[in-house]
User: What shape does this take?
Amino acid sequence: MDAKKNNEATEFQDIVYKYFKEEWGWNIIHHTNIEKQFKEGENNAGIEIKNDQQMRNYPNLFMTISREYYDCTVPSGIMKKHNKRFYVQGVAEKFYIFGLNDLIRYYNKNKSTLKHKTGYTTGGGGKENGFLLPQETADKIAFEVYTKQKQLTLV
Assistant: This one.
């Protein structure tokens, strides 16, 4: 990931943490140790955060389900196993807060009709595999949608 994209991703994470502190009263502690992140998740609150910079240009979110290396494929994104309860994806001006179990149920129920694709290559050489979730559908299945104009609570 280039420096500009990495900087935006880090800023997005800070915005999400601030949102959870101000709106939910959660003071989230980020795990900086990479081994701890793989074992326990990105933070102590069980919130996985994905900065989806492409959603500004396309009507879909790219939801990761696995990562493919030259010798193996491992669960990733929504399918990664650790303490996640919520999955947040988006950009600073709009992000979605999904209940992780709701998102997995949606995927399992609809996977035969979803458009699957290979996404970006990670810094470690893995290729992200996932599906496209239309933002229109994300608006309906998300637990909460944040926009800079207003905060929407969806039921």
Summary: Residues 3-24 form the longest helix (22 residues). The mean pLDDT is 89.
